[in-house]
Design brief:
- By secondary structure, this protein is of the alpha+beta class.
- It is built from three helices and seven strands, in the order E-H-E-E-E-E-E-E-H-H.
Length: 165
C-alpha cells in the first residue's frame, strides 16, 4: 500500500487511517513459507510538527512446524508498530526512524521487514514438547518408545564393561 505524506498534510485531522491486507505468501523464513494467508495491518499515519508518526497493529496467521517434534503449528503473530517517518534522517538516526525520499512510501515493505525481524526463531507445538526419539524417531509426545537413550562416551565404554563384571 502506498502512503502519501501530502494526503496526511491535506487532511483536516493531519492523519490518514488505513486497514488492508498484505500478501506475504512468497516470503521465505527459515526454509518455510509461513504466511499462507494475508497479513492484516490496521493503523494511522499522523503528522506531528513535520514529523510523521506511523502506528499500526499487525496480525499475521503463521503456519510452521514445531522445532522439536515437527508437528504442524498454526498461530497468529501480533505486532504493534510505532515508527517515525521523516524525509531526511541524517547519519545518526534511531532504529525506529524511517527515511523516505519524496512524498510517498510503500507500507508493505515496512510491515514485511518489521514482521520478519520480530518472528520467533523456534516455535514449539506446546511448551513442554518432548521432541523426537534420537534412536527411532518416534514423537515422544505420543508416548515413550522404549528405546535405551542413555549415551555413553565411546572413550569410557571400557569402564562400563568393567562395572558389569
Amino acid at each position: 500500500m502506498l502512503l502519501n505524506l501530502r494526503d496526511v498534510l491535506a487532511s483536516d485531522k493531519l492523519a490518514t487511517d488505513f486497514d488492508y491486507a498484505v500478501d506475504l505468501s512468497g516470503e521465505e523464513l527459515y526454509g518455510e513459507r509461513p504466511f499462507r494467508e494475508p497479513v492484516q495491518a490496521k493503523g494511522r499515519l499522523a503528522d506531528k510538527a513535520g514529523v510523521f508518526r506511523l502506528t499500526a497493529h499487525v496480525e499475521a496467521p503463521v503456519e510452521t512446524r514445531c522445532a522439536r517434534c515437527g508437528a504442524p503449528v498454526r498461530l497468529v503473530k501480533e505486532l504493534d508498530l510505532a515508527l517515525t517517518i521523516v524525509r531526511s534522517a541524517g547519519e545518526d538516526a534511531a532504529e525506529d526512524v524511517y527515511e523516505v525520499n519524496g512524498d510517498s512510501f510503500e507500507l508493505d515493505e515496512i510491515i514485511r521487514e518489521q514482521l520478519i525481524l520480530n518472528m520467533d526463531m523456534t516455535v514449539l507445538c506446546r511448551e513442554d514438547c518432548k521432541g523426537l526419539c534420537p534412536k527411532c524417531g518416534r514423537n515422544l509426545n505420543e508416548g515413550d518408545c522404549g528405546c535405551d537413550r542413555t549415551e555413553i562416551d565411546p572413550r569410557l565404554a571400557k569402564l562400563k564393561q568393567l562395572l558389569k563384571e
